[in-house]
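Hi there. Long-time user, first ticket. I'm pasting a complex I've been working with (about 1002 residues overall). I'd like to know whether the download I got is complete or cut off, because the file seemed smaller than I expected. Thanks.
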Amino acid sequence: MKVKEYYKKLIGKAKELRFLDTISMLVGWDYEVNLPPKSVEQRSEQMSYISELSHRELTDSDNGQLIKQIMEHPDYETLTEREQRNVYIFKREYDRAIKLPVEFVKERAAARVKSIEIWKKAKKTDDFKLFLPALKKMFEFAKKHAEYLDPDAPVYDTLLDLYEPGMTVAQYNSIFSPLKEATVEILDKIVHAEKQPDTSILSRTVPKDIQEKLAHDVMPVIGYDLQRGRLDTAVHPFTTGFYDDVRITTRYMEDFWPGCFFAVLHEAGHAIYEQNQNPKWKYEPVGGYCSMGIHESQSRFHENTLGRSKEFWKFYYDKFKELTDEIFDDVAFDDFILAINKVEPSLIRVEADEVTYNLHIILRFELERDLFEGKIKIEDLADTWKDKMHDLLGIEVPNDTLGVLQDTHWAGGMFGYFPTYALGNVYAAQLMHKMAEDIPKWREELSTGNLDGIAKWLQKHVHETGDLYDAPVLIKKITGKEPSHIYLVEYFKEKYYPLYC
Amino acid sequence: MKVKEYYKKLIGKAKELRFLDTISMLVGWDYEVNLPPKSVEQRSEQMSYISELSHRELTDSDNGQLIKQIMEHPDYETLTEREQRNVYIFKREYDRAIKLPVEFVKERAAARVKSIEIWKKAKKTDDFKLFLPALKKMFEFAKKHAEYLDPDAPVYDTLLDLYEPGMTVAQYNSIFSPLKEATVEILDKIVHAEKQPDTSILSRTVPKDIQEKLAHDVMPVIGYDLQRGRLDTAVHPFTTGFYDDVRITTRYMEDFWPGCFFAVLHEAGHAIYEQNQNPKWKYEPVGGYCSMGIHESQSRFHENTLGRSKEFWKFYYDKFKELTDEIFDDVAFDDFILAINKVEPSLIRVEADEVTYNLHIILRFELERDLFEGKIKIEDLADTWKDKMHDLLGIEVPNDTLGVLQDTHWAGGMFGYFPTYALGNVYAAQLMHKMAEDIPKWREELSTGNLDGIAKWLQKHVHETGDLYDAPVLIKKITGKEPSHIYLVEYFKEKYYPLYC
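Hi, the file is complete. Here it is re-exported in full:
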């Protein structure tokens, strides 16, 4: 049989797997947004069934056969770059799945449910010791997972690659170490600046219906197409979906309007990335997002680079004032800009500002790295956390609820996930730097409310490229440079020094 | 291998199929309730994939093998009645699926989509001729479908059995013919009665939020558990789901509040039936609804037998008045009861009252029957419709939009479906008759707002029995009598003669 025929079959399989994926996303969305309180158990059974089914369909021995038939075919090289990449991604997912014994996957899934339950309790009661046995278990599962995938590679490298293909400990170190140093220095200047924002602006009461109106007004401004998406309420903001049906959620806190407004910009940034995938590649492996880091670069870009910029508010502040009735009538433009760009060391990652955020991530990265390299013990995690918070952010952690217990990721066994968040910021800045070269007047355009150039640039270079390359390769293709911290540091300095100093 | 082991495997397969079914229902619900306008095509692809997958999983040759291994096993008789029924239902579904060539199923699905589009246009423009070719095609598909399933049986019998297992043309004739005659007679008395309702009560403006409040108040009253369900808005009211997650929809017309109120009672009746399935049989074939007719008996019972009864309003009218502010303050109880029980020949089935409704169905049944028996031609359907409306309801049909084009069923190829609606009314009355023997004071209890006895009786006799028997057998088991029209006729006379005459 011709290589193209095997290839077509594989693409057919990929399409079915993508369908299962979109179904799973929809069921998950419904779980967060619509689930009747007493149907949690029934829904969990349904969701386990979908993951089992997906796993079964992915690990079907026919798939292994097809991959072989294509890759060992004498005409393999006649496949285009995109086609070869499709085979490569399919193979990567297949290998990752086939190497895990079914029993292991089941045991871990069951342990994860329990672990998250215990973590919730431990977080509520500030009891790290209660959580410790479950955490140890999830840590062991992660190690085992990495060993199944590649018994010869360093464990943490394998885990990092799971969330951000192509990234290693060494690469993260080379970006995060200088970023850490530079950030600490910048932070020091900002917090000691004489000028400080009046953050009471951020906690003026804005009724829910006004926040909703604001959200619906701003989403189309940055290019999120609500004809192919929707906004709903959930406990945590998130984005889910694919091409023509990409949905975001937010939550409304009447005494902290940025909690909705910037979450919506953030999630809409994710959503735009999904909506703008290349329709010609729909259902192909390359027709999906590149990596968590690139995904996060798009959300952060819209939330921070655009959404907290002076230029954005130059055209949007009047509209904002109009929609919020008279709530902000007395607030001067500069005071508003300073307030939404408040920088301050704080305890909770998800509430951190743009500058300190990466320090929260680097802390977690270093802890994970040192854990897997055996340099620290899991029993000491709570204390080491406190020490690091002191070193990096200069603040004391009063208890573990506000410290090591704040995030769900480790409880869910997701070691290696955190670094992608900061990588998103790094990528966003590097992309912005290149965009500024291509569109020198992008800030002027933005300040008049013209986002077309920006949107088209992102669409062409980032969104439509889908998963054609691993993220570091993509970044180099677009910007001509290896991924680096320098653009983010430059962005911080250019933005915050004039603001504060 | 022991018969029990084969059986367990089959039940495992049934459970997986049920999961797929619940997923399909959820995706369908989301389509009606939440779909972003421009994701129709993407969702359609997703839904086709789910049906293909379900079909593939059902027709898996392993299933045929298992069925054989069980039914031909020397110890087959050691299986309990329930277990044998599970095998029987599984086999019935398997046979129905395996007998249809995949190509046929695909062609029909594609033709259906087109047919429904054409029907929509034809209905809008009152153009039966435009619809005719598509209708003919769907009619041929239905014939072919029946022939694939059983080449020796009369076509319409096979189709009727698809929607209502165990029912034949002869059985429907034996119920519908006398029901028709009796109804025409009753109707004649009612429409010529001197006392007639003031139906302006029904079109008093009730704002949407009040209708919503009413709906949320009344649902728990009749036993619909909103901890395991939810109410949303959709173009047409419907019920979907399973056990702990059963959802209903309604729509709000501010100038016709019964359009929401009674639709909610109707759908909640369906929902209660699903919520009350026997949890011990969850995911087994018997742990689902018995038939469309039995399902409809539960919706009709709650909408009409309870919801339009004097006794229900004896305890609920004060609450109704309170929730609707002062809108009905001047309406006397008897006038209200008469208004919500208005009987009048009308053109549209879905708007018909309890008494004339069955005539709308019998008309459709007779047309389908005569079509498949070759007694009338499909070209003449629009005219025959008009003649029959004249004969049965004594009204002239001014155009086909209000006549043969009003329903979507035939456009979708669902010949044999309509009769189950009227059968639901027949069953509801027969069940009520038996319930009245078991709980002689049920109407007194109802009038004090005590619905416990009624709910428990339905749960025990109807809901928890699931699909253990075909509907006619179930009705005989519960009531001791074959399904018959006489209880419905009796119910009409006992209810409407005192009201009108």
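A couple of notes from our side: Chain B touches chain A at residues 16, 19, 22-23, 26-27, 30, 34-39, 41-43, 45-46, 49-50, 53, 225-230, 242-245, 247 (CB under 8 Å). The two ends of chain B are 69 Å apart (CA to CA).
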